[in-house]
Structure formats: C-alpha cells, structure tokens
Amino acid sequence: MTSSTWTFFQAFLRSPRVVASMIPSSPFLERRLVRAAGLDRARVVVELGAGTGGTTRAMLAAMRPDARLIAIERTAAFVGPLERIGDPRLTVINGCASTIVAQLERLGLDRADDVVSGIPFSTMPQDLAADIAREVHRALAPDGHFVAYQFTDKVADFARPVFGQPRVEHELRNVPPLKIFTWARDAASAAA
Ligand SMILES: C[S@@+](CC[C@H](N)C(=O)[O-])C[C@H]1O[C@@H](n2cnc3c(N)ncnc32)[C@H](O)[C@@H]1O
Predict the structure, then answer these.
(1) DSSP assignment, residue 23?
(2) Cα 50 to chain center, whole Å?
(3) Closest by alpha carbon to 50, among 77, 18, 82, 27?
(4) Taking a C-beta distance cutoff of 8 angstroms, is the pair 98, 132 a contact?
(5) Residue whose CA is closest, atom 26 of ligand 1?
(6) Coil, strand or helix at 191
(7) 165 Cβ partners below 8 Å, 6+ apart?
(8) Least packed by Cβ within 10 Å: which of 34, 101, 112, 150?
C-alpha cells in the first residue's frame, strides 16, 4: 500500500461519510474524468474533493501550461499530499465546496471553465448538497462543464433543478464502480 493510499484509508476510517471511499480513484476513472471535462481547453478548473491528489495529478497532466487548478478539499490530512504535488498551476484550499465563488473571487479569478467533483452528495446534509449544486452553477462560465463521479444517483437530484439532464457514463474499473455525470451549463440555460 502506498503512503497516500494509507493516508486515504485512515481518513476514511475517521470520517467515512466525508471521505466516502476506502481507496483513491483508479487510473481508469482518472482518465475518464479528464475526457469528460475536456480539460485541455480550460483556463480555470475547480476540483471539489481532491483527496490525496491522484485525480488532481491526472487533471494537471491534461491541462494547458497557463491554466489554473483550484482544489477545494475538506479533509485537513489531505492538504499535505496535495501541496506536495508542487505544480505552480495548482492552488490547494482546505475548505468546503460550498465556498467556490468566494474562493475564485479571493484569487482574482473569473468563473471556472470546469468543475470536477468527487464529493459525496449522498452522505452530506441535504441542504448543503443543494447549496453546493447551486454554487457550482454560479461558479461556472456559460459554456462550462460540471463533472461529478459518484456511486449513487443522488448528485443528479440536486444538480438537475439547476443544470437539467446529465450525460451519464459508467466506470467499472474502479473500487467501487462509479457513474460519471456530466452537465454542460449552457445546455441548461438554453432550455430555461
Ligand atoms: C471519494 S473521495 C475522492 C478523492 C479523490 N478525488 C479520488 O478520486 O481519489 C471524496 C473527497 O471529497 C472530500 N469532501 C467531502 N465533502 C467535501 C466538501 N463539502 N467540500 C470539499 N471536499 C469534500 C473528502 O474529504 C474526500 O477527499
């Protein structure tokens, strides 16, 4: 077991409803997230629930040299591994996903081109989940994308009122197998 997998597992034992998975995502899931979000075009990307940084590294590898990645992670034990990635494009914030807009403003950044999320919408308080879905919508540029990888469909219950219907893919080569939900923000605006 690598040290980041061990850090992840220990954090899961302490807070299973927050960390939501016993081990980090697989490289198969990481690659699928990168494709779903179209990160090669993005200038500002927000990651919600970066964990120990596997998804973060995969996203950075696909991003432009002049892009920015803002990783918002609630579990303090994951901040060290994230900061050790040491990529100048990455800003790590130990905080809650409900603060995206304020964090972007604080950093002098305009809206995000993509928000990629692994936070567990099914186990957090329902009010917070609804707040975060609205916050993601506010934070995204009109042609931005919201990509969420989840074990259950719960994220769609919260996101559908603001984003409309998602595209859904499955990644079975992950523990546990996950669904990947993708929303295009302007698709929802056009339908409204
Ligand atoms: C399933 S893990 C995903 C970790 C990593 N991205 C991966 O795929 O391996 C979910 C992550 O979301 C974080 N998290 C949970 N609730 C959060 C919130 N409200 N704001 C920010 N991060 C949160 C957890 O601490 C955990 O790191």
Answers:
(1) S
(2) 7
(3) 82
(4) yes
(5) 19
(6) helix
(7) none
(8) 101
Model confidence pLDDT, tens digit, residues 48-60:
999 999 999 999 9
99 CA to centre of ligand 1 in angstroms = 14
Q: Structural domains in the chain?
A: 25-191 (3.40.50.150)
- Per-residue model confidence (pLDDT) at position 187: 72
With a threshold of 0.70, does the pTM exceed it?
yes
Q: In what order do the strands lie in the sheet with 44-48?
A: 90-94, 68-73, 44-48, 112-117, 140-150, 178-184, 167-171
Q: Residues enclosing ligand 1, CB less than 6 A?
A: 18-21, 24-25, 48-51, 54-55, 72-75, 78, 96-97, 118-120
DSSP per position, 144-179: EEEEEEESSSHHHHHHHHHH-PPEEEEE-SSSS-EE
Contacts 24+ apart (CB under 8 A), 125-131: 128/96, 128/98, 129/154, 129/155, 129/158, 130/158, 131/98
- The tens digit of pLDDT for each residue in 69-92 reads 999 999 999 999 999 999 999 999
